[in-house]
Design brief:
This protein has 112 residues and is an alpha+beta fold. It has one domain: Winged helix-like DNA-binding domain superfamily/Winged helix DNA-binding domain (Arc Repressor Mutant, subunit A), CATH 1.10.10.10. 54% of the residues lie in helices and 14% in strands. A hairpin with a 5-residue loop joins strand 2 and strand 3. Helix 1 crosses helix 2. The longest helix is centred in the last third of the chain and has 26 residues.
Length: 112
């Protein structure tokens, strides 16, 4: 049995926003940060990651520019905008409310 879990719909964007909240990162760095901070539970596929990043650019939550990675390769670095930081705050609040509500439902005593 694998320790990896599939992400719930809409979760990837908030994880990417959080990864970018610590400063600019390229795609591999974002995926690695999420994997490391989920203790290996989440492994982000390139297609899903870049779809999320492009959506964030279109919504004005992230800006990107070309640079050089730590390995000397050309890479696109993404950085949160002011709007992206605001979106992260909103999504974090909503996520915490969601987790709390699910926990309450799962902990509810059986009425049968």
């Amino acid at each position: 049995m694998s320790d990896e879990l599939d992400l719930f719909q809409g979760t990837l964007d908030v994880l990417v926003l959080r990864a970018l909240s610590h400063g600019p990162r390229h795609g591999y760095g974002i995926a690695r940060w999420i994997q490391d901070h989920s203790e290996g539970t989440f492994r982000i596929l390139d297609g899903a990651l870049y779809t999320s990043l492009h959506r964030m650019e279109e919504k004005g939550w992230a800006d990107a520019e070309w640079g050089t990675s730590e390995r000397g390769k050309r890479a696109r670095f993404y950085e949160l905008t002011v709007a992206g930081r605001a979106e992260l705050r909103v999504r974090t609040t909503n996520w915490n409310r969601y987790v709390k509500a699910v926990a309450h439902v799962l902990a509810a005593p059986s009425t049968a």
